[in-house]
Write a structure and sequence with these properties.
alpha+beta, 15 helices
Length: about 300
């Protein structure tokens, strides 16, 4: 039976009303769900050793907060920082652990924490990568957000060498591999910690290539850290032990850079002459000459 225009208009109106009602119910339901299910709260573990084992399996870094029942600023951070959706999302890239400052003195001592609030980001083996101490609302929130965002997120690359160290703590190859990883992610203090451990082993004394690599890499790390005395010592040790080593160009260049930065131009020229006599056509030699000339010009 055909409908007239008036009936068609009524039917269309009913359909529109039905669709609008359905959309309203749907939107109301979504809104109610979001209110009842906000961004998931951070799931803090409470045992540091257990958290560390979990991190080692996953390769994730560890986010550690130190708090206590009597710490008012810790409570404030719970409400103003750790409950933020962005912080909660970032925390999923970590193994998160809450350490009771008053009770877990072993973990407190491990990191040398002297007061709270204190937040640390560590690698999967408990090596500290970064930290923030104290509480100032804006500064603390910004610092911790950046710390969580920027830290390296995958430590699975050094799982195998770390496992080797569990049964052979003086495995030089494993120590150097770990040191090179930290060097790659610019954790230079940690890198040199492992390079120096490797250089103390008996194994590396017979592996000349590995020893030279460790000496020069450690020297370059110290150069980047602006610890010129230590950098100079490692570069000189390498040149002394390996006068024809494959890393000599890097060592010479490092020594020239140190002397330039200290404005010891006579010493820089002496090292440069040694470098030029051995590597006259090297790009390192050419760059060293340009750097030395530029520094001398600027000093005049």
């Amino acid at each position: 039976m055909p409908f007239n225009a008036s009936q068609n208009k009524n039917i269309i109106g009913m359909l529109i009303k039905s669709i609008v009602t359905s959309l309203f119910v749907l939107l109301f339901g979504v809104s109610t769900f979001l209110q009842a299910n906000p961004t998931a709260a951070i799931q803090w573990q409470t045992n540091f050793k257990t958290a560390l084992k979990s991190a080692q399996k996953s390769g994730k870094p560890v986010l550690i907060k130190f708090n206590a029942e009597w710490c008012l600023n810790c409570d404030t951070m719970e409400k103003t920082l750790w409950s933020k959706p962005e912080i909660s999302r970032l925390s999923e890239e970590f193994v998160t652990v809450s350490v009771d400052y008053a009770r877990d003195r072993e973990t407190v001592a491990h990191f040398g924490v002297s007061s709270i609030p204190h937040v640390i980001v560590a690698d999967s083996w408990g090596n500290m990568l970064d930290f923030h101490h104290g509480y100032d609302k804006r500064a603390t929130e910004t610092a911790i957000h950046q710390m969580m965002k920027n830290v390296w997120k995958d430590f699975s690359e050094i799982q195998a060498p770390n496992l080797k160290l569990e049964t052979d703590k003086d495995n030089a190859a494993a120590l150097v591999k770990i040191a090179e990883f930290y060097r790659k992610i610019n954790a230079l203090f940690l890198s040199n910690k492992y390079f120096k451990q490797a250089l103390k082993t008996k194994q590396i004394k017979t592996d000349t290539a590995l020893r030279e690599k460790a000496l020069v890499a450690a020297g370059d790390n110290y150069l980047k850290l602006r610890d010129y005395d230590e950098a100079e010592r490692f570069f000189n040790d390498s040149l002394s032990e390996f006068p024809n080593g494959v890393q000599n160009e890097t060592a010479f260049f490092g020594l020239i850079t140190i002397n330039i930065r200290r404005q010891r131009f006579t010493e820089a020229e002496t090292v440069f002459d040694r470098m030029k006599s051995k590597y006259p056509d090297s790009q390192f030699t050419q760059q060293a000459a340009e750097n030395l000339q530029e520094a001398k010009t600027q000093s005049n």
